[in-house]
Amino acid sequence: MAHDAPTATGPSKLVIRNIGLMLSGALEKPILDGDTIVAENGKITAIGRFKDVNTEGATTIVDANGTTVAPGLIDSHVHPVAGDWTPRQNQINWIDSYLHGGVTTMISAGEVHMPGRPRDVVGLKAMAIFAQRAFWTLRPGGVKVHAGAPVIECEMVEEDFKEMAAAGVKLLGEVGLGGVKDGPTARKMVGWARKYGIQSTIHTGGPSIPGSGLIDKDVVLEADTDVVGHINGGHTALPDDQIRCICEGCKRGLELVHNGNERSALFTLRTAREMGDLHRVILGTDAPAGSGVQPLGILRMVSMLSSLGELPAEIAFCLATGNTARMRELDCGLIEVGRAADFVLMDKAQHSPGKNILESVQLGDLPGIGMTIIDGIVRTQRSRNTPPAGKVPEVVGK
């Protein structure tokens, strides 16, 4: 089982040079003009041309060898349980495998697969506080897992949300996975959560596991959660007219997941694009789940939306990075000064017909990952899960 990743023991300075393409993660300017990134003590301090930035005193030097650097990918919808193990599939090291798929940050949509998960108010609050603390202490491979997302029940009162927020809980599990399945109750509790700085997500579509149920457009719109969880179903999606009503009826996040209906994901993407609301679209896997663990799920979503949704690849990567970071109020997901130094270095897969990584992704191929970096520390090099990249970066000095 993967355990805590190493952290810097003193002042650190990372220099990534010879970058071939820099993807910012920001829709307004998805490609940056530069070939060098400098990060000190885990934060980005300079972006630009090698000749123009201060690279002296580097403790780690990475030669990108002309590969592409993007913000580390963010999975907006996972279901962690205990450490790097999931009882849903009885699989260990699943988080470490996601890191090999370029994911450096994960957001819990509820620790719903915990064996014997408590439904009483005291128990669910205790479990949420425990999960938040445990996953912030344990970072498998360095991956940042934002966990501790309680599944709300009808017996809860405002004081419960205040108490959880004071203890560090910042997320709600999917509304609808517990006893709260109606619009008025959900809206009241979502309001309490928002009052105390807790973000909310709602289950959307047909039931995914025993105990969940149909959550249709009326409940989604009335609940008014911060994120419309798996609007393309997890797995069963709502009809197109209901999806359109949700897109038009609120201005909240529209989450597309790997373990959902692909056609509905593309319909949602087209609808959001027509509305000029691409900034609302974020990506998740909704895993581990009955369909398994998807280490390359976010990359696959980027490739699918780009190739079948006719979305420029550099824009598609924004949905998996900067969009989520801004919506979730994270300090990663964008390559800009002051942000966390979380990166994925990749190139087009060997023998892909695309001329470069962007064309390759738009043709439907997955890129090959050559390195991941979290908080300015190299965590992995050549991925064990992606196809081999045409070019790979390397650590050339310290």
TrEMBL record:
Residues 263-376 form the Amidohydrolase-related domain. Its cofactor is Zn(2+). It comes from the Bacteria. SUPFAM superfamilies: Composite domain of metallo-dependent hydrolases, Metallo-dependent hydrolases. This is Amidohydrolase-related domain-containing protein. It comes from Bradyrhizobium iriomotense.
